[in-house]
Structure to design on (270 residues):
């Protein structure tokens, strides 16, 4: 690493340094804890001092400049169009000390990432399929409103006590909407990907793989690929091959949901 890269990295880490517990944003939201740092934002659990309830506060990542701020503004616009109990409502965009924030409902629970890698949760094939079925109901709603999420990953799916939540709509776009030709949005795989349902279905396939691998215990060091390593029914294997576009992909989420229900029914009859 040369000196310029080192200085740039140090500067980005410095300006992206999170706010601390007890700090208050816009004289209203007191930070309880940092929830996570993503590519374009920092998210905090806060106490809304006016409402007396918990809130999630997302800050546009300072080092991303206008790209981060524009993504947060776009996320607010998308969430304003969505009304689903499993999608936290966005309340407001606000500026405090030259930083842009979005206040929203707080979704309690643990992300799939936390469940697998911190709690060591193990998912059987049936449990994973049931979880994916519940998640797919949410994604189907998003698609029917004319949007794709484009970032369905294990840190963006929260398992709460009574329901699953899908969060982080920062990359969501209208179905068929072209990626921005502007240089900041051209860079990065997810910013430049097509706004098509197939992208969300592929993400669901990878999320299902993570859940199935939670119960996998390797017997040898060699990486032989998921089709050889994971013990699953032929129906689930075929489902994954289509989700991951190894075979003909699903034309839409409804076609996937039909096959998914058949897989779950087959498990129930075993």
């Amino acid at each position: 690493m040369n000196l310029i890269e080192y200085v740039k990295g140090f500067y980005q880490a410095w300006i992206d340094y999170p706010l601390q517990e007890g700090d208050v944003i816009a004289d209203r939201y007191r930070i309880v804890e940092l929830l996570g740092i993503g590519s374009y934002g920092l998210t905090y659990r806060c106490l809304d001092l006016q409402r007396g309830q918990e809130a999630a506060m997302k800050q546009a990542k300072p080092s991303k400049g206008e790209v981060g701020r524009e993504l947060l503004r776009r996320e607010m616009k998308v969430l304003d169009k969505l009304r689903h109990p499993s999608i936290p409502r966005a309340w407001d965009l606000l500026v405090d000390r030259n930083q842009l924030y979005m206040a929203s409902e707080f979704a309690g629970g643990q992300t799939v990432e936390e469940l697998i890698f911190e709690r060591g949760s193990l998912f059987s094939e049936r449990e994973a399929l049931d979880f994916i079925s519940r998640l797919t109901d949410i994604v189907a709603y998003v698609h029917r409103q004319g949007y794709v999420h484009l970032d369905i990953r294990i840190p963006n799916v929260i398992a709460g006590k009574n329901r699953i939540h899908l969060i982080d709509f920062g990359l969501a776009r209208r179905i068929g909407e072209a990626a921005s030709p502007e240089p900041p949005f051209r860079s990065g795989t997810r910013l430049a990907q097509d706004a098509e349902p197939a992208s969300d279905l592929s993400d669901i396939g990878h999320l299902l793989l993570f859940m199935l691998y939670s119960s996998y215990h390797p017997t040898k060091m060699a990486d032989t690929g998921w089709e050889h390593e994971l013990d699953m029914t032929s129906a689930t294997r075929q489902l994954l091959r289509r989700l991951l576009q190894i075979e003909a992909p699903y034309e839409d989420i409804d076609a996937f949901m039909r096959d998914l229900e058949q897989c779950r029914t087959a498990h129930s009859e075993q």
